[in-house]
From TrEMBL:
Its cofactor is Mn(2+); a divalent metal cation; Zn(2+); Fe(2+). It comes from Companilactobacillus halodurans. One of its GO terms (cellular component) is cytoplasm. This is Ribulose-phosphate 3-epimerase. Pathway: Carbohydrate degradation. Pfam families: Ribul_P_3_epim (PF00834).
């Protein structure tokens, strides 16, 4: 699958979000990753459907909405109405994850499941035939700028193996957390397709285009 870079707006300048989004789009971003946090499921708070709606006004790129919240079903329709293209729900956030995925897909948008570092892939294996994406957290969720957890490489490899051995499993593998010039090649070689990058892109001294180009180049080397 094609390598895709998804800048995380959690690391952008919130006071100049439109500027940073447009700059990232011009620099070659393939989609944008929007973290929705409620302060309960994770110990942080960020964004709302209004931010997703605002993003739609400044970019035509797909919006990848990552819901780190309790009771995610209650927020599916507001996110769809706001303009989300993909909605990702944590397996750990609900006892009825299959119902959540089915609800998302009923609105005609892409659906994905997220697994925390400590969550076994076996807990979501039954979802593989019906999801569009699976997001592997390579840090503990809730805050940007965290250090990549090396053991997650084996998890990505295992996930890619499972995908290849099932004819009806056609989802993309996304990784989020600590993605930079030192980690992206390993994740790509393990089988990841979509790479969420925040601090590396928005907090660097060199330009966004140079950093996005560099990530794509490093990932492609290992395809």
């Amino acid at each position: 699958m094609t390598v895709k870079i998804a800048p995380s707006i959690l690391s952008a300048d919130i006071m100049n979000l439109e500027r940073d989004v447009k700059a990232a789009e011009q620099a070659g971003a393939d989609l944008f990753h929007i973290d929705i946090m409620d302060g309960h499921f994770v110990p942080n708070m960020s964004f709302s459907p209004s931010v997703v709606e605002g993003m739609c006004r400044v970019t035509d790129k797909p919006l990848d909405v990552h819901m780190m919240i309790e009771n995610p079903d209650a927020y599916v329709k507001p996110m769809v109405d706001a303009g989300a293209d993909t909605i990702l729900v944590h397996a750990e956030s609900t006892q009825h994850i299959y119902r959540s995925i089915d609800l998302i897909k009923s609105y005609g948008v892409k659906a994905g499941v997220v697994v925390n570092p400590g969550t076994p892939l076996e807990t979501v294996k039954e979802l593989f035939p019906v999801i569009d994406q699976i997001l592997v957290m390579t840090v503990n969720p809730g805050f940007g700028g965290q250090k990549f957890i090396p053991n997650m490489i084996k998890k990505i490899q295992r996930l890619d193996q499972l995908r290849q051995t099932a004819a009806d499993d056609d989802f993309e593998i996304e990784v989020d957390g600590g993605i930079n010039a030192d980690t992206i090649a390993k994740c790509s070689k393990a089988g990841a397709d979509i790479f969420v990058a925040g601090s590396y892109l928005f907090n660097g001294q060199d330009g966004l285009k140079d950093r996005i180009d560099n990530l794509k180049k490093l990932a492609k080397k290992e395809e």
